[in-house]
Design brief:
The protein is an all-beta fold. The protein contains 2 helices and 63 strands. The strands form 15 sheets. Strands 1, 2, 3, 4, 5, 6, 7, 9, 12, 17 and 18 form an 11-stranded mixed sheet that branches. It comes from Spirosoma linguale (strain ATCC 33905 / DSM 74 / LMG 10896 / Claus 1).
Length: 963
């Protein structure tokens, strides 16, 4: 072909420019490893190493490259022979395949690696470039094996990794990767790798590798800095822009994802050659992404031009073509099922503007969730010896399952007349295991479905599935008369390979139907009287809207039934009404008061009603049931007390909708018998509806009853709902008004009193004299407080609670209570005034305020000792005791020493009374003695340090003494 001739000339040109040395074992330009699982019963894989060899400078080495060592990642290796060698680019390069079959021992993660001893020489970004042929070439692929992956294969790259670029122009390459399993692909840059030995199994980044931007200064448009990147979605790798001529290598990784899980990685190490000439790269026009139904014929023009006016060659790459990287046909099992796409006028040199036509007759076995990527490559054909340049354009094709055609719906007869039969044209698209899913919704609004949107629009619910061979289905599930039902169908495709080939088709057309109204329609269930016995409910209904008096045999009959509960299903007969269906007959209202055997307790229960409709059979003259209404309940109201509020909630089980309507709330302050005032119009959205009453009245046309709710009063309520049928046949009945039962409730009151302010008559130690509290052993603390006040506090105080703690910082405990309005308390019979207090106020409802401020009293300690006493038995000054009026002493530890420091006496107790004897009872003689008194006082601090008194005392035993 002309295309091969041009690339062959390009290779010869670079051979002459770079002046190879034949003696070097230099040959590897690029390569990658691909895998494919070939068994569903064992973990057996076909593994292929594809290497691109330099057949000019490295031909001797390429000739000898008959086998390489494969490292399988499971601890085993194999020596694999070359299976094919195909020359490309005018025999300047070759595509070499090394294929082996290997079975793995079990699930796991395995990295397959191959080392080739020599790259080719003169790669500028692997310095020193002249000896880059001494760097080993290493590539690897990682696979994740598990049972669910079945016959998974890695993507194949259909565009050879050998291109040329021009100095100053943006260079781009696209590998045209294709995954036969329909897995998602993502791309990221990597670094070319080498290994430590000629048969190495572990790769590492080449230490001397330099990013291509090191050889650039500006981008094609003149901006800075230069860039080198890869599009993570399309895989288009671009260098903007090469700044030097020469040969460059770089690498990227393709990640394979399935259902959000990474299942493999493949690395491609590729090479380009940059030249410097006046040639400009060709331009290929953008192509919009396509979405087509399986079975459609795609004819997409591809147009390319060249700024230099040169001829161009348009080539196509992708799994939709049955060709590999060497442009030769591949086995059908390697890519996608037939039929294959063609590129008409592709791979030939054309005058510009050149046009090739992409043609693909799609089929149902090509349906998958992932789109197909098609990459077009345009190559210019300059005059010799100018090398050719290329440009790429990738577009995506989404093939979706065609919709099921000609869906119709019609009513059909069953035992109760409630059935809709669906019919559609035969559907033959899809692999074995495909089935049809049937969806339904209420309402016939048919909003447009966005193009290429598979599955049913929002709002539909799946009700059934049938084999793909079916063409009819009868729906009898929970159909209601007077409701419009819309249907759509989709085909659901199996994932036959554990991959991403399943999914659903486009939705069918919408088929919509209103069921005929052959039964009455309930329009009111309203509570007239709320009582434990003999409550009263009014029930109203319409005559059968879809039935005329002459349609069926007369007479006709309504049979009324009642069940207990909002959703009760145990219906019992309560009345029978004969009718002629005359428009003037008063036969569509019933006042239900219950019976002695079945009293109506509207206080405790809601009630649910339905009506059976009978006609007279012309043959048998017997009454025969034609249909039954949808059941409708009374409105049930509940009340939940809150703090000076009452929260109301109500709901009803009815065939009409009360949503998005204004409901009326009524309140009585005088009891269940009223009068009731309307206090609020509440716009509700969805059940259960609710409203919280705080005592205000927002509807004053019947008088303003606004006043705060009191916990001392009971309040009664009822609600009136407004509703309407949503079906177009019944919406003309207008608004449907229904009252709930009456319910009464008393709000709670969690309002607490404000905390009081507390004061304490405390001691002024500085003002006390030595005689203060003389011989006093009992003390009193006088507390006084003022009540707290505020707009959010309860002023109705019943008692005050006094809390006390002897020591600080002990927790204060309840001491006593005093009834209001008393605001003082005398805490008496204390051994010390030391202690802390706070006070709380307690309301008549038993709610306690927060604590008042904490007040504390401290004792004023005092103790003095004499320095002489006369223990001579005359009854005067016979013992050593404190001087008059010690205060707040808890304990004294007393030790006596002689003048030489010997301890003579030791005692301890709440008081001090020493008779001048030693600890063993011997009288001490007249003389001077020394003592230490450790005095512990009754203070606020439990661990307050004692007072240490050190002094002397004179004992005199002759005659009588006095102090």
């Amino acid at each position: 072909m002309r295309f091969l001739y041009i690339l062959g000339f390009l290779g010869l040109f670079f051979c002459a420019v770079l002046k190879p040395t034949a003696s070097r074992a230099t040959h590897v330009r690029a390569g990658e490893i691909t895998t494919k699982r070939i068994s569903q019963t064992s973990l057996t894989y076909r593994i292929t190493f594809t290497a691109y060899f330099d057949e000019v400078k490295g031909k001797p080495a390429a000739d000898q490259a008959e086998n390489y060592t494969f490292c399988f990642g499971d601890g085993t290796t194999a020596d694999v022979r070359r299976s094919s060698r195909v020359y490309i680019n005018g025999r300047t390069s070759s595509v070499n395949s090394y294929t082996v079959v290997h079975t793995y021992p079990g699930p796991g993660t395995y990295t397959i690696g191959v080392t080739v001893p020599n790259r080719n020489a003169d790669t500028k970004n692997l310095p020193p470039a002249a000896t880059s042929d001494q760097i080993r070439f290493f590539v690897s692929t990682t696979i994740y094996i598990n049972a669910a992956l079945l016959t998974n294969s890695t993507p194949v790259m259909l565009n050879p990794p050998l291109d040329s670029g021009r100095v100053g122009q943006k260079f781009c390459h696209n590998p045209a990767a294709f995954d036969a399993d329909g897995d998602s692909l993502a791309y990221r840059l990597s670094v070319p790798q080498t290994s430590l030995t000629d048969n190495g199994c572990v790769g590492r980044a080449i230490p001397s590798y330099q990013d291509p931007t090191r050889f650039s200064t500006v981008r094609e448009g003149g901006g800075t800095p230069p860039t080198f990147s890869i599009d993570a979605r399309t895989g288009e790798l671009c260098w903007d822009a090469p700044g030097e001529i020469g040969q460059f290598n770089f690498a990227f990784i393709i990640e394979e994802w399935r259902n959000g899980v990474l299942i493999g990685e493949i690395t491609r190490d590729m090479q380009i050659i940059v030249v410097d000439n006046r040639n400009l790269r060709p331009i290929i026009q953008p192509i919009p992404d396509l979405c087509v139904e399986a079975g459609a014929l795609i004819t997409q023009p591809v147009t390319a031009t060249d700024p230099d006016g040169q001829r161009v060659i348009i080539a196509g790459f992708g799994g939709v073509f049955n060709i590999g990287a060497d442009r030769l046909p591949l086995p059908a099992s390697e890519l996608i099922p037939p039929a294959y796409a063609r590129l008409i006028n592709g791979d030939i040199a054309q005058n510009q503007p050149a046009t090739a036509t992409f043609s693909w007759q799609t089929s149902c076995n090509q349906i998958r969730q992932a789109p197909y990527d098609v990459t077009f490559k345009v190559t210019d054909v300059p005059q010799r010896p100018t090398p050719a340049l290329v440009s790429f354009q990738t577009f995506r094709i989404q093939i979706v399952g065609p919709s099921i055609k000609n869906l119709t719906a019609r009513p059909t007869a069953t035992a109760n007349g409630r059935a809709i039969q669906l019919s559609w044209s035969p559907y033959s698209c899809g692999n074995p295991g495909t089935y049809i899913a049937i969806y339904r919704k209420e309402g016939c609004d048919d909003r447009p479905v966005p193009p290429c949107t598979t599955g049913v629009p929002p709002g539909y619910t799946k009700i059934a599935q049938v084999p793909v061979t079916a063409t009819t289905y009868t729906d009898t599930s929970s159909l209601r008369r007077g409701i419009s039902y819309a249907y759509r169908l989709v085909a659901v495709y199996p994932d036959v390979n554990g991959g991403s080939n399943g999914g659903v088709s486009l939705a069918s057309n919408q088929a919509c139907l209103n069921l005929p109204l052959l039964s009455p329609v309930i329009t009111q269930v309203t509570v007239d009287s709320t009582r434990d016995i003999n409550g009263q409910i009014t029930l109203k209904w319409t005559r059968p809207i879809g039935l005329n008096p002459g349609d069926l045999g007369a007479p006709y009959q309504y049979r009324l039934q009642r069940a207990t509960g909002l959703t009760g299903t145990t219906f019992t007969p309560i009345a029978t009404i004969n009718t002629t269906l005359s428009p003037t007959a008063n036969d569509t209202t019933f006042l239900d008061r219950g019976t002695t055997a079945s009293p109506l307790n509207t206080t405790a229960n809601p009630y649910r009603y339905r009506i059976e409709f009978f006609y007279t059979d012309a043959t048998t003259q017997q009454l025969t049931r034609l249909d039954v209404t949808e059941a409708a309940s009374s409105v049930r109201l509940t009340a939940t007390p809150a703090n000076r509020q009452i929260t109301l909630a109500w709901q009803a089980s009815v065939p009409w909708s009360n949503d998005a309507r204004v409901h009326d709330v009524y309140r009585s302050r005088t009891g269940p018998n009223g009068p009731f005032n309307k206090i609020r119009e509440v716009t509700v959205q969805a059940q259960p509806y609710s409203f919280t009453d705080d005592g205000s009245d927002a509807f004053t046309a019947d008088g303003n009853t606004s006043r705060a709710l009191s916990a001392d009063s009971s309040y009664c309520y009822r609600v009136m709902t407004r509703g309407q049928y949503t079906d177009s046949q019944l919406s003309r009945l207008g608004l449907l008004l229904n009252y709930s039962q009456v319910i009464c409730a008393t709000p709670t009151d969690t309002t607490r009193p404000c905390p009081p302010t507390l004061s304490l008559d405390s001691l002024n130690c500085a003002s006390l004299t030595s005689e203060s509290f003389c011989n006093q052993t009992s003390f009193t603390n006088q507390l006084r407080w003022t009540p707290g006040s505020g707009p959010t506090c309860d002023a109705n105080i019943a008692t005050y609670k006094i809390y006390y703690a002897r020591y600080r910082p002990d927790s204060l405990q309840a001491l006593t209570s005093v009834a209001a309005p008393t605001t003082s308390f005398a805490h008496s019979s204390l051994t010390t005034v030391a202690g802390c207090y706070y006070v709380t106020a307690v309301s008549a409802r038993g709610l306690e305020s927060r604590p008042s401020n904490v007040v504390c009293n401290e004792a004023c300690p005092s103790l003095a000792l004499p320095n002489v006493f006369t223990p001579n038995g005359d009854g005067k000054n016979d013992v050593f005791v404190p001087l008059a009026c010690p205060r707040f002493v808890e304990r004294i530890e007393f030790v006596v020493y002689n003048r030489w420091g010997a301890k003579l006496y030791e005692g301890s107790g709440p008081t001090l009374s020493w008779d001048g004897r030693s600890s063993d009872g011997a009288e001490l003689p007249t003389g001077l003695y020394y003592y230490q008194a450790t005095v512990h006082y009754a203070l606020l601090n439990r661990n307050a340090p004692p007072q240490i008194l050190k002094s002397w005392v004179q004992i005199i035993r002759e005659g009588s003494g006095s102090r």
